[in-house]
Specification:
By secondary structure, the chain is of the alpha+beta class. Helix content is about 40%, strand content about 20%.
């Protein structure tokens, strides 16, 4: 599924929650309408809108502009420069050409969320049939401009050890950069974050992106744990089927990527079609076998 420029972030109009007395009046009307199905179902959609508006306003001001807005099929600016874990100046294009890339936006001194994200990613990668550095690369970029290559080097050492001896160390890249490059990259992938001066920490969302070898955003996954099946299918799709097996192609036929959920879902109709096709092939094979057997018996 390709949805060029499709953006999943939804802004909720909070007008209803700002009107004095409207909330109480609404719930009273909803309760009184319970005995009248027509009125009840008329007011029910408004109830969900009001609840959504209240949830939006309940978020702390620091978090209202924090999130991930999907930019599926959009191009990431590969000319941006960063520094790798060895303090060498590199371009993003250095990691894109023949293999898909898993991109993680983190900061290495994060007290909790970023570490959990990278731990969850490594745990999923360990059970994949693909190896980092061979079928795909992993690029982690710090969005804290104050962090230096020494922190990136320590992070790479730690996660390489956690990953084990599979794959190639050259497939892992931990980058730091200047504010301009960081801002361009985070904007391009739809990653919004804020710095809290009170706690000296960043408020940010948690997720990873899968990019094509050409640097286009193919898939987003949210949270700190990622289903190995979803990562596997995303890498196969991002590679334009250059990696993977016949089993992966069958799985892609049966599962469909849902951008709103950030994961693959089961497609029952495709499974029914596949079962129907297998049934027809089986019956056809049986008929041919019986026809040939009958001819052989006559001879």
């Amino acid at each position: 599924m390709k949805a060029k420029g499709k953006r999943q972030k939804v802004k909720v109009n909070s007008w209803a929650s700002q009107q004095p007395g409207l909330e109480c009046l609404h719930w009273r009307l909803l309760l009184r309408s319970a005995g009248c199905p027509l009125t009840f179902f008329f007011l029910l959609p408004f109830s969900f809108c009001l609840v959504s508006a209240q949830a939006q306003n309940a978020r702390p001001p620091m978090l209202r502009d924090v999130g991930i807005e999907q930019r599926l099929n959009e191009q990431v600016p590969l000319h941006l420069t960063f520094r790798d874990e060895n303090a060498r100046v590199v371009r993003l294009s250095d990691y894109f050409e023949t293999k898909p890339v898993i991109l993680a936006l983190v900061y290495y001194q994060c007290p909790m969320l970023c570490n959990e994200l990278l731990n969850g990613l490594v745990s999923s990668l360990r059970v994949l049939p693909f190896d980092v550095g061979q079928q795909f690369d992993v690029v982690a970029v710090s969005f804290d401009p104050k962090e230096d290559p020494a922190l990136a080097r320590d992070a790479k050492t730690s996660y390489l050890k956690r990953y084990g001896h599979r794959g190639m160390p050259t497939g892992w890249h931990f980058l730091t950069g200047e504010p301009a490059s960081i801002e361009r990259l985070t904007q391009a992938v739809g990653f919004s974050y804020r710095y809290d001066t009170r706690t000296n920490q960043y408020a940010h969302a948690s997720g990873i992106m899968v990019l094509t070898p050409q640097g286009k955003l193919s898939r987003y996954f949210y949270g700190i744990e990622f289903a190995p099946r979803d990562l596997r299918l995303a890498l196969v799709e991002a590679s334009a089927n250059r990696i993977g097996s016949l089993t992966d192609q069958v799985l892609l036929f049966c599962y469909h990527y849902d951008p709103s959920q950030g994961k693959y879902g089961f497609i029952i109709m495709n499974v029914i079609r596949l079962c129907g096709l297998l049934f027809v092939l089986s019956v056809g094979t049986l008929i041919v076998w019986m026809w040939r057997r009958e001819r052989w018996l006559r001879i």
